[in-house]
Amino acid sequence: MPTNIVLIGFMGSGKSSIGRRVATHLGFQFVDTDAMLVEREGREIAEIFAREGEARFRDFETSVLKSLGVREHCVISTGGGVILREENRALLRDLGLVVWLTASEDVIFNRVSRNTKRPLLHTANPRETVTQLLAARRPLYEAAAQFTVDTTALTHAAAADAVIAEARRAFSWDTAR
Q: Is residue 12 helix, strand or coil?
């Protein structure tokens, strides 16, 4: 198994913030698949959704995942819907240790409602959308993950420590890392 840590989870679960901390602590490169996708396509995610739809966005997302297969010593933060495709779930496992960052629905909604750039929440009832998306995605996150960290009551530092501790076990690292 490659020595990458792959963070999955719903939008607002802390993948980017926690991932940066983990990468810094371990001396790994931090990779954000959404940022890679935006850079490759030269436009924001919301624009891709609006002009080409979610299916096309998911195609771009799969392409980004495939391009990461040669990387080592990375913390990879993925988009919240990356687990929707079976192909992507297999790619995630091939990339390294898959850690699901989760949080309570209330915490998730409070975190994501502050960001107007989330195209899936441009609905008449964003709270209901979060409820529905979480319910649909939960079993997919669970199936893809090798380890879960509930970030509901954790600081970013504590959540990062939990991820690092599991990576040490998974990769049989000594405590020097």
A: coil
